[in-house]
């Protein structure tokens, strides 16, 4: 079968011919339909100096590796209650299953956590082997392209739950990529509304506006101009902006949350005294919880999240071209499609 493989430390991926994997006990063989491409996949492709000094240390020992940690497909060989022919979305977090975090549904904070598509082979291939326990069986009508993008929506659902947004409350978000847009849509399901979204990418600003989100480039419209003091109930950072968002805490109500989602580029230098005086909270979100994943499966189809999914690209040379374009900071969002659906 064909697969996109990270063979060595350094930039790039290779399109390789590899054997179809064989499932072991408790595992299923999935015929991959769609594998989404997120920023972390592009970072693994680009392999910058900053990446090599940080996140790459966790991955280098596991090379070569078929990448792709967000994917969906159809089960070819089932196991443990996941039948042949089932349409599935893959939960990519592999926890130990025994620690306190895993027992309460937070495998994302398991100290032995691993990730499908990073520490085990993933979905940029015609077939993938995954634990049956990591398969979510979907209804026949569930769009497999949407299923491949469940992770960012689940992360957003988790972030919104941690913020505790209630009907009628308001929020602002930095970063209007898949996770940032998903935050807006997931928060809207709670009855909250977005006051503003910010991104440096004009295409993302335009896409957010097309979804009805008041979106701005902060280089053109200062956040303080649209966020008066104590005017919003939560702030979300889905851009790794860190200090930039913390500096806007004046816009946040007393005791309100600043939710930092995902990776920061490094140390954050910020004056925290205003947050302390206002008794505001800083909340971290690494990934998603089991309840957030289940809620995302139930709710994502009721939102316009499908409009954010981007192009479908066949597994092959064109996919490598799109990775190269994405690594340069250009191009539209895309997903790799080994088997069109």
Automatic annotation (TrEMBL):
<feature type="domain" description="Alcohol dehydrogenase-like N-terminal">
    <location>
        <begin position="24"/>
        <end position="138"/>
    </location>
</feature>
<keyword id="KW-0862">Zinc</keyword>
<dbReference type="GO" id="GO:0016491">
    <property type="term" value="F:oxidoreductase activity"/>
</dbReference>
<dbReference type="Pfam" id="PF08240">
    <property type="entry name" value="ADH_N"/>
</dbReference>
<dbReference type="InterPro" id="IPR002328">
    <property type="entry name" value="ADH_Zn_CS"/>
</dbReference>
<keyword id="KW-0560">Oxidoreductase</keyword>
<feature type="domain" description="Alcohol dehydrogenase-like C-terminal">
    <location>
        <begin position="178"/>
        <end position="301"/>
    </location>
</feature>
<comment type="similarity">
    <text>Belongs to the zinc-containing alcohol dehydrogenase family.</text>
</comment>
<dbReference type="InterPro" id="IPR050129">
    <property type="entry name" value="Zn_alcohol_dh"/>
</dbReference>
<dbReference type="InterPro" id="IPR011032">
    <property type="entry name" value="GroES-like_sf"/>
</dbReference>
<keyword id="KW-0479">Metal-binding</keyword>
<dbReference type="GO" id="GO:0008270">
    <property type="term" value="F:zinc ion binding"/>
</dbReference>
<dbReference type="InterPro" id="IPR013149">
    <property type="entry name" value="ADH-like_C"/>
</dbReference>
<protein>
    <submittedName>
        <fullName>Threonine dehydrogenase-like Zn-dependent dehydrogenase</fullName>
    </submittedName>
</protein>
<dbReference type="InterPro" id="IPR036291">
    <property type="entry name" value="NAD(P)-bd_dom_sf"/>
</dbReference>
<dbReference type="Pfam" id="PF00107">
    <property type="entry name" value="ADH_zinc_N"/>
</dbReference>
<dbReference type="InterPro" id="IPR013154">
    <property type="entry name" value="ADH-like_N"/>
</dbReference>
């Amino acid at each position: 079968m064909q697969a996109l493989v990270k063979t060595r430390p350094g930039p790039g991926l290779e399109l390789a011919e590899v054997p179809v994997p064989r499932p072991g006990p408790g595992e299923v063989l999935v015929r991959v339909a769609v594998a989404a491409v997120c920023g972390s996949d592009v970072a693994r492709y680009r392999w910058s100096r900053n990446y090599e000094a940080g996140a790459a240390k966790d991955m280098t020992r596991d090379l070569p590796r078929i990448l792709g940690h967000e994917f969906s497909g159809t089960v070819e060989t089932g196991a443990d209650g996941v039948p042949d022919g089932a349409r599935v979305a893959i939960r990519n977090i592999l926890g130990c299953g025994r620690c306190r975090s895993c027992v309460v549904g937070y495998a994302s904070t398991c100290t032995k956590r691993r990730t499908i598509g990073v520490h085990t082979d993933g979905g940029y291939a015609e077939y993938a082997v995954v634990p049956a326990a990591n398969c979510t069986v979907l209804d026949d009508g569930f769009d497999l392209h949407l299923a491949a993008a469940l992770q960012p929506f689940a992360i957003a659902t988790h972030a919104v739950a941690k913020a505790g947004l209630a009907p009628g409350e308001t929020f602002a978000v930095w970063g209007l990529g898949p996770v940032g847009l998903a935050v807006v849509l997931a928060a809207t399901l709670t009855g909250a509304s977005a006051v503003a979204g910010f991104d440096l990418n004009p295409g993302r600003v335009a896409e957010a506006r097309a979804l009805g989100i008041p979106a701005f480039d902060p280089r053109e419209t200062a956040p303080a101009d649209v966020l008066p003091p104590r005017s919003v109930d939560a702030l979300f950072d889905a851009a790794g902006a860190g200090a930039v968002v913390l500096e806007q805490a004046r816009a946040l109500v007393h005791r309100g949350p600043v939710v930092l989602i995902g990776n920061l580029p490094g140390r954050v230098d910020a004056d925290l005294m205003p947050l302390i005086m206002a008794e505001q909270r800083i909340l971290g979100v690494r990934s998603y919880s089991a309840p957030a994943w289940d809620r995302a499966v139930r709710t994502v189809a009721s939102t316009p999240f499908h409009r954010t999914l981007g192009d479908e690209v066949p597994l092959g040379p064109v996919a490598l071209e799109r990775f190269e374009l994405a690594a340069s900071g250009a191009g539209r969002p895309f997903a790799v499609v080994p088997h069109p659906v």
